[in-house]
Design goal:
291 residues; 48% helix
Length: 291
């Protein structure tokens, strides 16, 4: 969940003139970012290559400093996740966690929702009769305009995500308390509004109705990990925990793909098929006692 333009790519080259940027500078930049384990290294390289190619076309510079620099290889990082037992422990711990944070964490761990999707849930997105949430928007923040806004979900493909009835009852209780708080706040309630000035009924907001910042979710998750001495994984890896559990339970990859909102099932298989392979290896143990 990174935005390429929120990286320090621009800052690094901002004070340099195009004609003064040499191949050495590009290699040095990529090397430093790699050492810092920064995200999107191949994408950053391709952006630079595109900028310099256009500068050559416009005859601003004679040579493209990215020429003969191979596309950096993407580091394949094995995603962390919680096992079924670790998820059970997490859910017990969450009984002592602030209700909003508890709901947010469960939406990621059970539903596989992305952070921005969770914060984009509106009251009308929830169907308590059929136990699903319609995920069609995500909350974004524009650093340039300094404001929150709703955008289509990744891949622009809305989806219905079904949840266990026990969780939906918990969500409904939170929702009822949320409505009471909104009524008590009265004119002090400051919700996000659309382009027509109409309030957007976001559910997981601050105490005054203003949107929760995306970074706050990760910060609160890290505090919970530290406070309760949980295994350290990122908030996004709660989503991987959801997927991993479904693979271990033998859920069809197409179902997992649709739940997670991947563009196609190939992405899902590529990311989680190694777990299924481990499951197949474990299945051979069933024959050990009879051979």
């Amino acid at each position: 969940e990174y935005n390429l333009f929120e990286t320090n790519l621009y800052d690094y080259f901002a004070k340099m003139k195009l004609k003064d940027i040499k191949r050495f500078h590009v290699v040095e930049y990529l090397s430093k970012e790699r050492k810092k384990k920064a995200p999107l290294i191949p994408e950053r390289y391709l952006v630079l290559k595109s900028i310099f190619s256009k500068a050559v076309d416009w005859e601003v510079i004679k040579n493209n400093p990215t020429s003969n620099i191979p596309v950096p290889k993407r580091e394949v990082k094995k995603a962390g996740f919680y096992t079924e037992e670790e998820l059970q422990h997490l859910f017990k711990v969450l009984d002592d966690v602030y209700p909003k944070h508890r709901i947010i964490i469960k939406l990621a761990a059970i539903g596989g929702l992305r952070r921005a999707e969770i914060l984009g849930i509106r009251e009308e997105s929830i169907n308590y009769e059929d136990n699903y949430i319609y995920v069609d928007k995500q909350l974004r923040y524009s650093k340039t305009e300094k404001k929150f806004y709703l955008a289509p979900v990744k891949n622009k493909t809305p989806r219905y995500v079904y949840f266990p009835e026990t969780f939906m009852k918990e969500l409904r209780e939170y929702h009822l308390q949320f409505r009471k708080q909104r009524m008590q706040m009265g004119n002090l309630w400051t919700p996000l509004k659309d382009e027509n000035g109409k309030p957007i009924n976001l559910l997981l907001v601050k105490e005054n109705g203003f949107p929760t910042h995306l970074n706050t979710v990760g910060n609160e998750w890290r505090k919970i990990i530290k406070r309760h001495k949980l295994k350290e994984i990122t908030f996004h890896e709660l989503r991987h925990s959801c997927a991993s559990l479904m693979v271990k339970k033998g859920i069809n990859f197409k179902v997992i793909q649709e739940r997670l909102g991947h563009a196609n099932v190939g992405i899902t298989i590529d990311r989680y098929s190694h777990l299924e392979e481990e499951l197949h290896k474990d299945s051979t143990d069933a024959f050990s006692d009879i051979l």
